[in-house]
Amino acid sequence: MDLKGKTVGFAITGSFCTFSAIKKELVKLKEEGINVIPIFSFNAYSTDTRFGKASDFVKFVEDTTGNKAINTIREAEKFGPNNILDILIIAPCTGNTLAKLNNGITDTPVLMAAKGHIRTGRPLVISISSNDALGMNFKNIGSLLNVKNIFFVPFCQDNCIKKPNSMIAHTELIIETLSMAIEKKQIQPVIRP
After folding, report:
1. Alpha-carbon Rg of the chain, whole angstroms?
2. Which of 32, 48, 88, 173 has the fewest C-beta atoms lying within 10 Å of its C-beta?
3. End-to-end alpha carbon distance in the chain
């Protein structure tokens, strides 16, 4: 399905090493004529790391999308009752966020937006980035793969020798995944080399 003219919530959590890949995908989404509403976890919005300053990243996201970032739980609550988004993606989705989502915890703007959005029966897409995806979080991935209206960007092990439990999404497949998920279809295969 063509996503042009659709409103996509783009929720960003603190897998800072993937932010450069996320920047590329945000640019592609805007080039497709998609209205992108950025939503940040507290950590993604405010933590400076070796990958860059948080304020620089937030500015890039806001300038690219043309929308102010949602960065409080109060602001994120509106996504439930108001049916603002056609689809929501959490990219990157850390193992911490994944675990909380699977257990119904809503203590960040990203999780509040996801909770409200899921309530509308519209699709939620997860773009995983977790060092323990094949460890403690494996059960959460399995559970969420079986939840109606939750879809995954295909993912793989990113360094099976040094980090054997780590998995990361193929972010270059975000648009294709969103296009299928909006039609309530999971892109296949989910696990790729």
Report:
1. 15
2. 48
3. 25
Q: What is the sign of the dihedral through the CA atoms of 179, 182, 183 and 184? A: positive
Round the average pLDDT of the chain to a whole number and report it.
96
Residue listed under structure tokens 């990243």: 57
CA angle, residues 54, 116, 148, in degrees to nearest 5: 110
Distance, in Å, from the CA atom of 110 to the CA atom of 69, rounded to the nearest integer, reads: 11
Alpha carbon of residue 153 to chain centroid: 9
Query: Is the pLDDT confidence value at 82 over 90?
Result: no
Alpha-carbon distance 185 to 175, whole Å?
13
Best CA proximity match to 102, nearest among 154, 137, 151: 137
**CB-hemisphere CA count at 13 Å for 102?**
19
How many angstroms separate the CA atoms of 134 and 32, rounded? 34
Peptide bond just before 81 cis, omega within 30 deg: no
Cα–Cα distance, 46 to 71 (Å, whole number) = 9
CA dihedral 13, 16, 17, 18 (to 10 degrees): 40
Amino acid present at 161: I
Give the SS3 label for residue 39: strand
Whether 157 shows a pLDDT value over 90: the answer reads: yes
The number of residues making up the chain comes to: 193
